[in-house]
């Protein structure tokens, strides 16, 4: 069990690293959106991102609804991050 837990912990660390990369990309998107006058929330894109994640999940045998729910939370956090930037609250 200890070995399995160590593998899970290592995978969790990699996932957090990927989320940090995603966060950096969202920061780039916010700068572009500010420059060209786009809002943080673009509903069509939200649905596209969530659907993409769901499709990828289903193709790997994962629970599509669960992954879409997780991705909605990720997207909402990204929108909040962009909103903070667009409103002048730069971290």
From TrEMBL:
Broad enzyme group: isomerase
MF annotations from Gene Ontology: chorismate mutase activity
Superkingdom assignment: Bacteria
Location of the Chorismate mutase domain: 1-86
InterPro entries assigned: Chorismate_II_sf (IPR036263), Chorismate_mutase-related (IPR051331), CM_dom_sf (IPR036979), CM_II_prokaryot (IPR002701)
Biological process terms in GO annotation: chorismate metabolic process; salicylic acid biosynthetic process
Gene3D superfamilies per the UniProt record, alphabetical: Chorismate mutase
Entry keywords, A to Z: Isomerase
Record Pfam families: CM_2 (PF01817)
Protein EC: 5.4.99.5
Entry-linked PANTHER family: CHORISMATE MUTASE
Annotated protein name in UniProt: chorismate mutase
Species classification: Bacteria, Pseudomonadati, Pseudomonadota, Alphaproteobacteria, Rhodobacterales
């Amino acid at each position: 069990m200890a070995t399995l837990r160590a593998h899970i912990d290592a995978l969790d660390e990699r996932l957090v690293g990927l989320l940090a990369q995603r966060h950096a990309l969202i920061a780039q998107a916010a700068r572009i959106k500010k420059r060209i006058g786009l809002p943080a929330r673009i509903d069509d894109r939200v649905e596209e991102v969530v659907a993409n994640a769901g499709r990828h999940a289903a193709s790997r045998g994962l629970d599509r609804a669960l992954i879409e729910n997780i991705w909605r939370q990720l997207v909402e956090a990204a929108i909040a991050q962009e909103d903070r930037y667009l409103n002048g609250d730069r971290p």
